[in-house]
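Ligand: zinc ion. Inputs:
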Amino acid sequence: MHYAALASGSKGNCHAFCDGERTLLLDAGLSLKQVRLRMESVGLDHRTVRAVALTHEHSDHIGAVGVMLRNTDWVFLATPDTKSAVERIHGIEIPGHRWIPLRAGFAVDWCGWRVHPFTLPHDATDPVAYRVEVKGFNAAVVTDLGHPTALVADHCQDLDLLVLEANHDVDMLREGEYPPPLKARILSRVGHLSNVSMSELLAAVLSPRLRSVVMAHLSEQNNDPELVRVVAAEVLRGWQTSLHLAHQRDPIRPEATRSLAAS
Ligand SMILES: [Zn+2]
Ligand SMILES: [Zn+2]
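Predicted complex:
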């Protein structure tokens, strides 16, 4: 099983899971051209993409839906409320044959994969994160949440790979140049996950099984990648878990997930 963070951050998000035959993208916050270029640059075949699962309607997660709809035959997995929000924002219609309806809390079977959306505390219409299970490989991508909930922690148990938001350092955000309403939004319980909250959630889901952790959706203004590394490494000390940072401009494909290709 292969995983790549193609882009992560407030300017666009897109993650790829590939079993060698087919690829599921999580979120459409990266242009179609960049999806193709970045997949190729990390050794994944972009022609294997079959579907895109959407988390919520914020622009950094759905910017390329219209282009993908017109220029590919990919299907979109989304809850009805997220689909409606995307259609309203982009002035498009995702036809029935291109849509797999989801409901938070209920897994669907997609080509033999188990795709399980679950609710996040975030200021969107019906935001979800995803747990993906393929042939004994379990992964979750959890970004855009204001605080860690028990429900989120429950869905992040027994993972091989966890992609987790480390959005901001609270002091950097407080002392930074964002306007006060934006600071308040990010700091709220339906905003974004701070480094401290990330470390709490990570500690709650650590297990010997967890091979790789990818820190994601880092703020370019209100966080420092080295600080994220230090905070996460402290939690991971003594565990055989590799630590990676996803980027806005460059894709990453953690080695540790490559070796799971045996599945
Ligand atoms: Zn976002
Ligand atoms: Zn968001």
